[in-house]
Design brief:
By secondary structure, this protein is an all-alpha fold. Helices cover 71% and strands 0% of the residues. Helix 1 packs antiparallel against helix 2. The protein starts with 6 loop residues before the first helix and ends with a helix. The mean pLDDT is 89.
């Protein structure tokens, strides 16, 4: 699927990247975007194939996967680093989207390194 990535969508993507670690990432994005365009949500969803909320979750979990390679980081630290409210929320989301717990993922990754 080819994405048009209008200037508005590019701005939303940049704001998400800058605020990904913040628990209220979407609210921070909307503080900036809604002033200029209240239709950003529909436009973003059409262009990216995901709602902004789903995109944020996807990006957070991709970042978590990279952080899980660092065995010195606790799962609690990782959940904070990706902007989630705690270990339980992180574990549930990760397991839902990746089919295994963060601990299992880490063990699998560390075996291959």
């Amino acid at each position: 699927m080819e994405h048009k990535n209008t200037e508005l969508t590019k701005k939303v993507l940049l704001l998400i990247e800058e605020n990904l670690q913040h628990p209220h990432c979407l609210a921070k994005v909307e503080d900036v975007i809604l002033v200029n365009d209240s239709n950003y949500y529909a436009l973003f969803t059409e262009e990216m194939g995901l709602t902004p909320d789903a995109y944020i979750i996807k990006q957070r979990l991709k970042h978590a996967e990279k952080l899980l390679e660092q065995k010195e980081l606790s799962l609690k630290d990782i959940s904070k680093a990706i902007g989630l409210n705690g270990y339980f929320e992180f574990t549930q989301l990760f397991k839902h989207f990746n089919g295994m717990s963060p601990a299992s993922y880490r063990n699998q990754i560390l075996k291959t390194i």
